[in-house]
Prior knowledge:
By secondary structure, the chain is an alpha+beta fold. It folds into two domains: about 5-75 and about 220-245, Alpha-Beta Plaits (2-Layer Sandwich), CATH 3.30.70.100; about 75-215, Superoxide dismutase, copper/zinc binding domain (Immunoglobulin-like, Sandwich).
Amino acid sequence: MIEPFQTTFAVPMTCEGCVKDISSSLHKLDGIQKVDANLKEQLVFIEGTAPPSSIVSAIQDTGRDAILRGSGTTNSSAVCILETHSNVSNKIRGLARMVQVSPNMTLVDLTINGLAPGKYHATIREAGDISRGAESTGGIWDALKTKVLGSNEAEKEPRGIFGSVDVDHHGRGNVFLDRPVAIWELIGRSMVVSGNREGPFKREDENTLVGVIARSAGVWDNDKMVCSCSGKNVWQERQEQVGQGMA
């Protein structure tokens, strides 16, 4: 059973009618337990077990956009931007959001956009070196240990094997996974999404994605509205991200 977790989203709202529309749309989702909104701060707080990507879609169904501002508690969440290292203009093809909900359980919300139709495998690799794309990320994390020591009934495969996602003829795929790992074990490692689970991988393969897992903000940790580096607000940055395929 998945433990409930909290998420915070920035959502443009002008009145209580907006709040009611958003709350009504969200409560249609399975796993939504609580929805609160702060009209002044333009924030929506959600508790439950629904994937963040489903929450964004439900809010967008009301005609509004949404930006994930935080999930879980401090030091319990991570993100991985997945890119192809082939010579193409639009390299970003996926996003993985992760939140730890118990000492030994992390949920992974994986969204893909722009790959050829088919089944793809998501794996965590031993190294975080993506200088040559997926080619330089090493083997599957924990695979050698599992092979040498063997695995018990509760853990039949390496923890670095996260699962698979089916991509449709539009190039899109989404899956919500749970794995017996902690966030701190993943930070700095790479994630690979490819039709080939084990490798070796080819750098120029447009349909092999890779990224480095980085820590992200907890539900109360991110109140920044303007980036100090670019001077752009969160909605300006959001438009750039959507243009790059990061839904």
